[in-house]
Design goal:
The complex is a heterodimer of chains A (about 950) and B (about 130).
Chain A (H helix, E strand, L loop, with lengths): L10 H12 L3 H20 L6 H16 L8 H8 L4 H13 L5 H15 L4 H14 L2 H7 L2 H7 L5 H17 L10 H5 L7 H17 L7 H13 L10 E2 L2 E2 L1 H11 L8 H19 L7 H21 L3 H15 L4 H14 L6 H5 L2 H10 L3 H14 L5 H12 L4 H17 L4 H15 L5 H13 L4 H11 L7 H14 L11 H12 L4 H17 L4 H9 L1 H4 L4 H16 L2 H7 L12 H9 L36 H7 L11 H13 L28 E6 L3 E10 L2 E10 L6 E8 L4 H4 E5 L11 E10 L8 E8 L2 E8 L8 E3 L4 H10 L6 E6 L7 H11 L2 E2 L10 E8 L4 E9 L13 E7 L12 H7 L18
Antiparallel strand pairs in A: 1-2, 3-4, 4-5, 5-8, 6-9, 7-8, 9-10, 11-14, 12-16, 13-14, 14-15, 15-16
Helix pairs in contact in A: 1-2, 1-3, 2-3, 3-4, 3-5, 4-5, 4-6, 5-7, 6-7, 7-10, 9-10, 10-12, 12-14, 13-14, 13-15, 14-16, 15-16, 15-17, 16-18, 17-18, 18-21, 20-21, 22-23, 22-24, 23-24, 23-34, 24-26, 25-27, 26-27, 27-29, 28-29, 29-32, 30-32
Chain B lengths: L15 H15 L9 E4 L2 E8 L2 E8 L4 H18 L5 H6 L1 H11 E2 L2 E2 L4 H13 L2
Antiparallel strand pairs in B: 1-2, 2-3, 4-5
Helix pairs in contact in B: 2-5
Keywords (chain B): Cell membrane, Coated pit, Endocytosis, Membrane, Protein transport, Transport
InterPro entries (chain B): AP_complex_ssu, AP_mu_sigma_su, APS2, Clathrin_sm-chain_CS, Longin-like_dom_sf
Protein name (chain B): AP complex subunit sigma
């Protein structure tokens, strides 16, 4: 076979490349390049027309210069000229230049597309291929528009050369990826599928890639490919290694094609046709059998190619997850690889086994390899292999082996690479919680986590241990004892101080009987850590101290002394100072009873998906990221005042001005005449010194994007634009509420003349009484301002108040108005009742004024747990086993206002059978109340919005819901 | 460590700065690995399959679900073709004939997929092209 000599054909190019290589310095190289650029430019501009060869040579030099990392701003026209040459070598350089230096200069695109068009219709396979490769490499929308219609025709035409078909198939694939809307398959589908039968295996290889891509998007249309793919695969795996000649690679018949066919089959469930299904099973068995045969070559290429097919076959077996024998055989095969001397195979076996572990058929088989996997964790040199071992241990974990696996992970954590510590911490925390039989073990495990890798224990983890301890009274005493012991260590991690502070503050009394952990000892122990801690931890400890005052009156004096000291009362940090002042004052003036009420034990946390799990999913990257709508810091420590998390996903509006425009027709404005909204806008845009909107004065548009999210929850981000984020945290009790509003300045510039007010329109003024403490007039760049609202519900109400803020940013006055999520349901107190009571009362409330029923379409699927959480968040008690129909939800609660109390019953009847797409009715919600006037009017946001913001994947499940009155 | 990119081929749209950044990142994660390591590295939301031949690294960045060993042997198949085509290929061949290497790549990989795997067929095609003027 003749060798290609160095730079043959273009001597000038070879000389230039040599020159560049001989340059001793960067400067010399740049000098040489500039000289060459000047030379080429003069040649291109010269009077003498260049011949094709010279043009090719200079364009190629420009390309080389570009690839060295220098900008090229000329020569594109000459490159385009080369495209119309009749000589392959000139055309090739032209196309290469175009492909590498894509330039969406519209004039040139037209010329390029013309040249491509000519080549595509030239019937010269070499030129057609060059053109197709160019389209495939550039893949621009312009090219898709120009050629998407021609390429399928070339692909399926009877007289197209094989090599052109290969290029056409992949060219089409690229266009489908970049501009799917422009590549209609329709009429070509069946002929494309039949390329799987082509005699030329290269064509089949390219076509399989195309079909797989198309089938992923549109499985139904390409369903016929399954039987053809199985037939083709069967012929390959049963062929002798010499049958396929060119396509046999190190004694393995067509390994790449086999892999592609197996991947195509993973777009589909197991074939329904028994014959095809049987044939496929035979193929998979043959592949598994071959893995046990002695190798036909010692070369790694042979085993790699063979195992490439094997791993893909195992992926298909796992994908089908239907044949227990195949699954167990696959598991055994992977088990052998776990001990293979090749690192690649051990890695891939660990990875593949992870998916096997989740199949019910093979979970047990995977578990038998636990010792090998643990050993891998200890001995593998490549961190990515150890990472896979951690993943597999996590996947194979269940109640039977959790103690062993968690212990091994903790062991490994001591020496684990920094890059994966946080993930291991999360995994340990999840496993310990999920499979804990014994909560004392759980507490030990988390404290160990903090001891070993405290820096990597995120807030989610230590919040979670506290939630669990609070919710389980059987473990509280043990937890108190254990944290007390752990805190004895001379140097303990700050996270331990937080957990310890919180738990002792709640349950320190449970161990106070022992003189070794008497109240004073507990206090002194915590306080010895105080000065080493950061501000947030100190704030938490201050809350612990006030809790101690309630738990242990005997240490009141000691603690008051601490609170009274200058280092607390005059602390430079406002948060600490405020806590010290307030707690000290509280401890001095409040009676024992009041103290006991204010500082009573935290109520149990609502059960919900572990926030740690959510975090892990987030870490694991795309595809597995769940909705993270809930503000992650909802569970606040000791009712403290940490700012709202900014993680909460909110729709941020692009800019204040577009925000105003886009919300111009906000429903909240219904009470104001339409012109006032436009007027307000003009004022906002054109007036600098717009007086603060007084209550009752028509306002600009009111934002309510996030309003409905707060119907069932109290914390989160209410509003966000480029300048400001407004977060809320609120608590309600009977007819009273307190709302903390956090204004975050997202810019680096100070907001001046900041003012805020709450506006109650019309009758709301008498129904709701709201007091707002005035805020500072400036908010520093990046800083957060907190404001507190005290709310009293005087009588029932429908409308929501509006928060209006105003500030000057960079010389412009900004006005923002947002609907405040204070809704009547916030004043619900849940009420438990029996089934009998419920229905008796339900029947009594039969007059039309006592009942509201609403039928509406659920925006999302009605996941039971999510719906339950919504109903509880709504404020009523969720009554389990009250309704004879288990798919209905019922709830009961009492709305407290200053003037009256109104009992309400709620019944939600999801109707999953209702016709999809039926015009109006889907969910009916009815709410019934003792005093009919108190029934929230049906258009109030209460009931339907419960279900319209349920986050979920599917959209068209439907339901019914009814309510009646007490 | 000094390293130069001899050839880069992109199957997704990136601007020049992003390409440069990607190249540097790939260098950084691949060149620190030794023979005891696997031939696979996680990279952003993808993975890199690579193989070292003397001082040259051949790297392919693929989806995380792609078949590692198939691409690993895809690299070797490509290298064997280069070796045959340039008759005992060395780094200098790739430097001086960079424009031909692009042709070899396009024959074997197109649109980020494997186009042709038969060495005989690829070489036959390359020699045919070589004979054209």
């Amino acid at each position: 076979m003749p060798a290609v000599s160095k730079g043959d054909g273009m001597r000038g190019l070879a000389v230039f490349i040599s020159d560049i290589r001989n340059c001793k310095s960067k400067e010399a190289e740049i000098k040489r390049i500039n000289k060459e650029l000047a030379n080429i430019r003069s040649k291109f501009k010269g009077d003498k027309a260049l011949d094709g060869y010279s043009k090719k040579k200079y364009v190629c030099k420009l390309l080389f210069i570009f690839l060295l990392g220098h900008d090229i701003d000329f020569g594109h026209m000459e490159a385009v000229n080369l495209l119309s040459s009749n000589k392959y070598t000139e055309k090739q350089i032209g196309y290469l230049f175009i492909s590498v230096l894509v330039n969406s200069n519209s004039d040139l695109i037209r010329l390029i597309n013309n040249a491509i068009k000519n080549d595509l219709s030239s019937r010269n396979p070499t030129f057609m291929n060059l053109a197709l490769h160019c389209i495939a490499n550039v893949g621009s929308r312009e090219m898709a528009e120009a050629f998407a219609a021609d390429i399928p025709r070339i692909l399926v035409a009877g007289d197209t050369m094989d090599s052109v078909k290969q290029s056409a198939a992949l060219c089409l694939l690229r266009l489908n990826r970049t501009s799917p809307d422009l590549v209609p398959m329709g009429e070509w589908t069946s002929r494309v599928v039949h390329l799987l039968n082509d005699q030329h295996l290269g064509v089949v290889t390219a076509a399989t890639s195309l079909i797989t891509t198309l089938a992923q998007k549109n499985p139904e249309e390409f369903k016929t490919s399954v039987s053809l793919a199985v037939a083709r695969l069967s012929r390959i795996v049963t062929s002798a290694s010499t049958d396929l000649q060119d396509y046999t690679y190190y004694f393995v018949p067509a390994p790449w094609l086999s892999v592609k066919l197996l991947r195509l089959l993973q777009c589909y469930p197991p074939p329904e046709d028994a014959a095809i299904r049987g044939r496929l099973s035979e193929c998979l068995e043959t592949i598994l059998n071959k893995a046990q045969e002695p190798p036909k070559s010692k070369k790694v290429q042979h085993s790699n190619a063979k195992n490439a097919v094997l791993f893909e076959a195992i992926s298909l077996i796992i994908h089908h997850d239907s044949e227990p024998t195949l699954l167990v055989r696959a598991c055994n095969q992977l088990g052998q690889f776990l001990q293979h001397r090749e690192t690649n195979l051990r890695y891939l076996a660990l990875e593949s086994m992870c998916t096997l572990a989740s199949s019910e058929f093979s979970h047990e088989a995977v578990k038998t390899h636990i010792e090998t996997v643990i050993n891998a964790l200890k001995t593998e040199r490549d961190v990515s292999v150890r990472q896979r071992a951690v993943d597999l241990l996590y996947a194979m974990c269940d109640r039977s082996n959790v103690q062993q696996i968690v212990a091994e992970m903790l062991n490994y954590l001591e020496t684990a690479d920094y890059s994966i510590r946080e993930e291991i911490v999360l995994k340990v925390a999840i496993l310990a919680e999920k499979y804990a039989v014994d909560y004392t073990w759980y507490v030990d495990t988390i404290l160990n986590l903090i001891r070993i890798a405290g820096d990597y224990v995120s807030e989610e983890v230590w919040y979670r241990v506290i939630q669990i301890v609070i919710n389980r009274d059987d473990v509280q005493g043990y937890a108190a004892k254990t944290v007390f012991e752990a805190l004895q260590a001379p140097a303990c991690h700050e996270n331990l101080v937080k957990v310890g502070g919180y738990i002792l503050g709640e349950f320190g009394n449970l161990i106070a009987g022992d003189p070794r952990s008497s109240p004073l000892v507990q206090f002194n122990l915590l306080h010895s850590k105080f000065h080493l801690c950061s501000v947030p931890s100190r704030a938490l400890l201050l809350s612990t101290y006030i809790k101690f005052i309630n738990l242990f009156p005997e240490v009141k004096g000691t603690i008051q002394e601490v609170l009274r000291s200058d280092s607390q009362l005059r602390n430079a940090d406002v948060e600490l100072q405020q806590r010290a002042v307030e707690y000290l004052r509280l401890s001095c003036i409040a009676s024992t009873d009041i103290l006991a009420t204010v500082l009573e034990e935290m109520p149990p946390f609502p059960e919900r998906e572990s926030s740690i799990l959510a975090k892990l999913k987030r870490k694991k990257g795309p595809g597995m990221v769940p909705d993270i709508e809930e503000g992650r810091k909802d569970k606040n420590v000791n009712g403290g005042m940490e700012p709202i998390s900014t993680n909460a996903t909110t729709k941020s509006t692009p800019s204040p001005s577009t925000d105003l425009l886009s919300l111009g027709s906000s429903p909240a404005l219904s009470s104001a005449p339409p012109s006032s909204s436009a007027g307000g806008l003009l004022v906002d845009v054109f007036t600098e010194n717009h007086a603060p909107a007084a209550p009752g004065v028509p306002m600009g548009p009111v934002a309510d994007d996030n309003f409905s999210r707060f119907v069932c929850k109290n914390n989160g981000v209410l509003f966000e634009n480029q300048l400001v984020q407004i977060g809320l945290k609120s608590e309600f009790r009977q007819n009273l509420g307190r709302m903390y509003i956090f204004f975050g300045n997202k810019t680096s510039t100070q907001f001046l003349n900041f003012s805020s007010s709450v506006i109650c329109q019309d009758s709301l003024k008498t129904q709701l009484s709201i007091h707002i403490k005035p805020a500072d007039p400036t908010v520093d760049g990046g800083a957060q301002l907190q404001q507190i609202l005290n709310i009293e519900c005087v009588s029932d109400f429908v409308e929501a108040p509006v928060l209006s803020i105003q500030f000057r940013y960079g010389g412009t006055l900004q006005n923002i108005a947002v609907k405040l999520p204070i809704t009547l349901n916030k004043f619900f107190q849940p009420t438990e009742m029996t089934s009998q009571d419920f229905f008796q009362r339900w029947k009594q409330l039969s007059s039309p004024q006592q009942e509201v029923q609403k039928i509406f379409k659920a925006k999302h699927s009605m996941d039971t747990e999510v719906t339950k959480a919504k109903i509880i968040g709504f404020g009523v008690a969720l009554l389990d086993r009250v309704d004879p129909n288990p798919s209905n939800f019922v709830g009961a609660g009492v709305i407290h206002t200053k003037t009256t109390q109104v009992g309400c019953l709620l019944r939600l009847e999801p109707n999953t059978q209702a016709q999809v797409g039926g015009p109006e009715r889907v969910l009916a919600c009815a709410l019934a109340c003792a005093r009919c006037r108190a029934v929230p009017s049906p258009n109030a946001s209460l009931s339907p919005s419960l279900f319209t913001d349920v986050p979920s994947h599917t959209t068209d499940k439907q339901g019914h819901c009814i309510a009646a009155a007490l | 460590m000094y390293s130069k990119t001899r050839l880069a081929k992109w199957y997704m749209q990136f601007d020049d700065d992003e390409k440069q950044k990607l190249i540097e990142e790939v260098h950084a994660v691949v060149t620190v690995r030794d023979a005891k390591h696997t031939n696979f590295v996680e990279f952003r939301n993808f993975k890199i399959i690579y193989r070292r031949y003397a001082g040259l690294y051949f790297c392919i960045c693929v989806d995380v679900t792609d078949n590692n060993l198939a691409y690993l042997e895809g690299i070797h198949n490509f290298v064997e073709v280069l070796n045959e085509y340039f008759h005992n290929v060395c780094e200098l061949d790739l430097v001086f004939n960079f424009y031909k290497v692009y042709t070899v790549v396009d024959e074997m990989f197109l649109a980020g997929e494997i186009r042709e795997t038969s060495q005989t067929k690829v070489l036959k095609q390359l020699l045919m092209l070589q004979s054209l003027e």
